[in-house]
Design a protein that fits this description.
The protein has 424 residues and is α/β, with parallel strands linked by helices. Helix content is 23%, strand content 30%. A 5-stranded parallel sheet has the order 3-2-1-8-20. Strands 10-17-11-12-13 form a 5-stranded parallel sheet. Strands 23-24-27-26-25 form a 5-stranded antiparallel sheet, with helices on both faces. Helix 1 packs parallel to helix 9. The termini are far apart. Bound molecules: flavin-adenine dinucleotide (FAD).
Length: 424
């Protein structure tokens, strides 16, 4: 049942956000920035002040980051902006009431139900675990939060590392661990890296880069067991019988949206909380933002994005809707991943393309750009080590630039010239 949306004209007196990470903090920040003076409460079951996740697989593991350098906002920011942050508080139950929502959560101090006018779910995702023999060993790790990063950092020089999965987090950790001198094997079930995220050219280039760093990459292999003697891990056994030596195993097989609270409220979930372009869930009242969501586009197709950019964009949209203002136009999505000396930046959505082409700077072959088209319309690009091209492409995509493959194929002309806005 769709409810009437009473925020069209009257902002709520209090807003509760479950989850205090990229999406939740941005929402609070945007609400205050837009002049909202009501109560804002962020609830997180983590014990730390809100922090950034991207450095966890990069600078943090290299020992180049501290808790202070990864905080999303300075500690005094929240008090200064009258944003209440309830840390170490796990929300167990949400109950819709006539005037809003009752939030039931547990803290060390006990259970403290609280009532709020409006509810936003920013519950993110959890790392997927492997249902394998041996996977319960304490040196089989995942990486989603700061506590995981601390545990992993302590294992990087403790012997060989096996990374299960060829996704962004696993590859970033593999590159960081190699930089620190660890012996690293990446085990990938498919025939290429990043199969769901990038095209074959970018995947192939990254594969070559990881192998050039002396990372062992095993493609087309499925782990069947983690072998240990109770005290220490010895190896990962593969489906072909091979044993990959390992003292530590990082399971990097993706993240699973946290939808339990949404399901409890009876909201539609389909690999994420289903939200429309205003970040409204299926009851037309609850909002959901960030990694916990599945988008429904105006055309009805469903897709999930897991990125800081998406968390920030959806938070900005949710803030506008809560204040009864029109949702801002959606900026072109983007994502980045740093893997050793490889800097990947993606812009646009690589879906249903009809053609693609790869531009390589002959004088600087490490710079590659893969362009994706629907007919003569550029829809997305992957840029390796080409930040200037990325900036030009993102801006061109934002303007809805129609530039066919033939024109962009001319590598003698720099992309930023080809993509320069047409005057007038
Ligand atoms: P999350 O960051 O997952 O936060 C959700 C919060 O809600 C968590 O703190 C969780 O504990 C809390 N929560 C959930 N349920 C409850 C409950 N019941 N009670 C209380 N609290 C609850 N993205 C990029 O764009 N570029 C990168 O380079 C990049 N690198 C990454 C590296 C790593 C190691 C990881 C893990 C992610 C990376 N990402 C990157 C992805 C990016 O961090 C996520 O897209 C982003 O964190 C999503 O933010 P979020 O607020 O939606 O959810």
């Amino acid at each position: 049942m769709k409810e009437s949306h009473d925020t069209e004209n009257r902002p709520p007196r209090s807003i509760v956000v479950i989850g205090a990470s990229h999406a939740g903090v941005q929402l609070a920040d945007r609400l205050r920035g837009e002049g909202y003076t009501g109560g804002i409460t962020l609830i997180s079951h983590e014990s730390h002040l809100p922090y950034q996740r991207p450095p966890l697989s990069k600078a943090w593991l290299k020992g180049e980051a501290s808790i202070d350098s990864v905080l999303l906002r300075d500690p005094e920011y929240f008090a200064q902006h009258e944003i209440e942050v309830l840390s170490s508080a796990r929300v167990k139950e949400l109950v819709r009431t006539a005037g809003g929502v009752e939030v039931r959560f547990s803290r060390a101090s006990g259970r403290e139900p609280r009532r709020f006018d409006r509810l936003v779910l920013a519950t993110g995702a959890r790392a997927r675990r492997l249902p394998l023999g041996g996977a319960e060993h304490p040196d089989v790790l995942v990486l989603r939060d700061l506590d995981h990063a601390r545990a992993l950092a302590g294992r990087l020089t403790a012997g060989p590392i096996a990374v299960i999965g060829g996704g962004f987090v696993g590859l970033e950790v593999a590159a960081t661990a190699r930089t620190l001198g660890a012996e690293v094997t990446v085990i990938v079930a498919g025939e290429r890296l990043l199969a769901r995220a990038v095209g074959p050219d970018t995947a192939g280039t990254l594969l070559a880069a990881h192998r050039a760093m002396a990372t062992e990459v095993v493609l087309g292999a499925v782990p069947t067991e983690i072998l240990h003697d109770g005290a220490a891990i010895r190896a990962v056994r593969l489906n072909d019988g091979r044993e990959i030596p390992a003292a530590t195993v990082l399971v990097g097989i993706g993240a699973q949206p946290r939808t339990e609270l949404a399901e409890q409220l009876g909201l539609e979930c389909d690999g994420g909380i289903v939200v429309d372009e205003r970040c409204l869930a299926s009851d037309g009242w609850t909002q959901a933002i960030g990694d916990c969501t599945t988008h429904v586009s105006a055309a009805g197709s469903r897709y999930r994005l897991e990125s800081v950019d998406n968390a920030v964009e959806q938070a900005n949209t949710a803030a506008a809707v809560l204040l009864g203002r029109p949702a801002p136009a959606r900026a072109v999505p983007w994502f980045w991943s740093d893997q050793g000396d490889q800097k990947l930046q993606i812009t646009g959505l690589i879906r249903d393309h009809t053609s693609m082409l790869v531009r390589v700077d002959p004088e600087r072959p490490k710079r590659r750009v893969a362009l994706y088209f629907q007919g003569d319309t550029l829809i997305a690009a992957e840029c390796l080590n080409s930040p200037a091209d990325f900036v030009a492409l993102r801006s061109a995509l934002g303007r809805g630039h129609r530039l066919g493959p033939e024109l962009l194929a001319d590598t003698d002309v720099p992309l930023r010239k080809l993509l320069a806005p047409v005057p007038g």
